[in-house]
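User: structure tokens for this one?
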Amino acid sequence: MSGKNYLFTSESVSEGHPDKVCDRISDMVVDSYISLDPYSRVACETLTTTNKVVLAGEVRGPKLNNDEIIEKVRNCIKDIGYDQKGFSWKNTKIETFLHEQSTDIAMGVDSKANKDEGAGDQGIMFGYACKETEDLMPAPIYFSHKILRLMAEDRKKNKLQGIEPDSKSQVTMQYENDKPIKVTSVVISTQHSKDLNQDQVREIVYPYIQKAIPNDLINNLSQKEVYINPTGQFIIGGPDGDTGLTGRKIIVDTYGGAAPHGGGAFSGKDPTKVDRSAAYAARYLAKNIVASGVSKKCLIQLAYAIGVSKPLSIYLKLDDKDENKSEEIKKIINNNFDLSPRGIRELLSLNKPIYEVTSAYGHFGRKPSNKGEFSWEKTDKSNLFEL
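Assistant:
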């Protein structure tokens, strides 16, 4: 985005969106293996459609029998809230085709045998942070996530009657001098029971916009620019209404389009895969840089080659007025952070079953937990970047 004044839009999807159901199941598989052996290798893909779930991929680690995995899949679907005619945790047919990882892929990147463990694949990963919100995230994606997360929390507590799991949101904001000053439109499409008409859906859903977005950003928002189920009724949804696949919501998972994306998905991959771990490391670095006050925004790119432990390159871009600090910041990164796959996992304590919770409402802009979840959101290294 080169202009100083512009409109920018980001979208989110709920945990009941078909693709997010798949992300949840794939990350559950990752956690299941890592909980038994922190050095497990997992690359799991999931497909969902009407009353059917299919798992496929490569694993290396403890033996989990199919019945155990199938039971955990059902628990994921149940927790999301699906007990519908076209997709129910009780009777959905679940098939697993997980098999042993190729020894060719494992060669040269084995975390137990190789001290200088190389990356599991080539690729580029981006991290970003900015001062638009308290969690240093771009405002449009932050508020898009928050609307759906609040709806899901109340739905699961039976405080949101008639609203079903599948939903999407979209927030457009006006920027002046690169700063978000107001919301100009909001779109929410949500699955609902057949007993609700569209006026009732709007009445139920609209308060969540007010809960999620500060009043000073929406006090001039026209009702005409709030689109709730704009195409009409949305009764058939979830995997019954649309096929889902792991890894199809990578922009939702990251920065809502406000920063570049290297192209690799996160869900279903253990932390030896730099698609996941290096993206977390790049966010960690960017967030600590911005938290230090050295710049109001930061973009970082890391590049890797399969079997090579260190990044091939580190690209850093600060806010325009702070670009003169870039070289010094890169020196600090090189002198203080081991960005090899092993170094990242140790820095962020990634060899833990912490991934299922990341599968919806974004991998970034979340609160670190005492279980080790979202460790890349900590700002405990910001003092290093105080120039």
